[in-house]
Amino acid sequence: MMSLGPHAMAVLSAYAVSLLLLAVLIGASLRRDRRARRALEEAERDHG
Q1: Is the distance from CB of 4 to CB of 11 less than 8 angstroms?
Q2: How far, in Å, CA of 31 to CA of 33, rounded?
Q3: Contact indicator for 16, 23 with CB cutoff of 8 Å
Q4: What 3-state DSSP class applies to 3?
Q5: Rounded to whole angstroms, how far apart are CA atoms 21 and 42?
Q6: Cα(5)–Cα(30) distance, rounded to whole angstroms?
Q7: Cα dist from 31 to 7, 26, 42, 44, whole Å
Q8: C-alpha 3: how far from chain center
Q9: Is residue 12 a contact partner of residue 4, using CB atoms and an 8 Å limit?
Q10: What is the pTM of this model?
């Protein structure tokens, strides 16, 4: 493994924050997708 030297904590913290934000964005996208699919199915049922 590569040695990060005196900046290891800053670099690893930046990676951790990036991964956390990525996970939050993916989760929000999946929730929005589910909500949109339900709304579409309901609209199709009401007008179909």
Answers
A1: yes
A2: 5
A3: no
A4: coil
A5: 32
A6: 38
A7: 36, 9, 17, 20
A8: 29
A9: yes
A10: 0.76
* CA–CA gap between residue 41 and residue 37 (Å, rounded): 6
AA letter at 31: R
First-to-last alpha carbon distance for the chain, in angstroms, is: 59
In the structure encoding, which two tokens stand for residue 42, read together? 């309901």
Structure-token pair, residue 39: 């709304």
String of DSSP letters for 8-38: HHHHHHHHHHHHHHHHHHHHHHHHHHHHHHH
What six digits make up the tokens of 43? Answer: 């609209």
Dump pLDDT digits (tens) for 7-41. 999 999 999 999 999 999 999 999 999 999 999 99
